[in-house]
Specification:
It is built from five helices and eight strands. It is of the alpha/beta class. The structure holds zinc ion. Zinc ion binds next to helix 5.
Length: 183
């Protein structure tokens, strides 16, 4: 899995003659607003075990919990206090994005949308972010970090008509406290 923020999320220019796996990924994207398999914070023992085995500072690629559903929502294995929305296809995670919301401040943050290279330009990022916004109505949406130059086109495309437009914004004190409390 690599960062795909430079990928164009637009769905209007899909290449002709889609391969079967890309067609399957597009079908997964279409399911993003349906029921998502949810694992509540602290209930996924594999994540908990991984955190114990591999503290955040040790680096390395975190293990992902894969639920038996096209879309899943779990505790982020990378960011304490954050959620991870991910898409699965044939038992493989093909997309993931971390997000965090603060109801009192009316703000949501997303970080690091990443798509497996073979499944880029299938609309997964756009569908996932739209689903998360629908589930948390009334928020303005931001990213945490500054956008790298090669990801600006992605965020401009994905943030059009979205309150906040996914511009960078620091965490509020509520969110900051949640991300620094030990699970
Ligand atoms: Zn807040």
């Amino acid at each position: 899995m690599t960062d795909n923020q430079s990928a164009d999320p637009a769905d209007g220019d899909r290449p002709a003659g889609l391969s079967q796996h890309r067609r399957a990924a597009i079908n997964v994207a279409a399911l993003a607003d349906r029921v998502v398999a949810v694992a509540e914070p602290g209930t996924t023992w594999r994540t908990a075990l991984w955190r114990w085995l591999r503290p955040r500072s040790s680096g390395g690629w975190p293990e992902h919990v894969t639920l038996d559903a096209p879309w899943q929502d779990t505790a982020s294995p990378e960011r304490p206090g954050w959620r991870e929305r991910a898409a699965n296809l044939d038992g493989q995670q093909i997309f993931a994005v971390d997000y965090l919301t603060c109801a009192p401040c009316g703000i949501g943050w997303v970080e690091q949308p990443a798509t497996e290279p073979d499944y880029r330009r299938c609309g997964l990022a756009r569908a996932a972010l739209a689903a998360v916004r629908t589930e948390h109505p009334g928020l303005t949406w931001h990213t945490l970090g500054r956008h790298l130059s090669d990801s600006r086109a992605f965020w401009i495309a994905i943030g059009t008509d979205v309150p906040g437009s996914y511009t960078p914004r620091r965490l509020c004190h509520h969110a900051h406290a949640r991300t620094h409390s030990r699970v």
